[in-house]
Specification:
Layout: H1 2-14, H2 22-38, H3 54-58
Amino acid sequence: MTETYLKTFETFEQNGRQKDPSWLKQIRKEAADSFKHLGFPTVRDEAWIYTNLAPLAKTQFQFVQE
């Protein structure tokens, strides 16, 4: 599931996001890199022990294009 989100993010970045400020692009890149490394939290992560993120992970999100 993580790979689907990362591929969608790559497409988002490649399709017309050149006008965004460089600081915003950098924040997005860092967030994507962090997500790639960590993935979705699970109940094995102490801070998320009582939170079921399975429905969120299954949700198909789309980036808004301006």
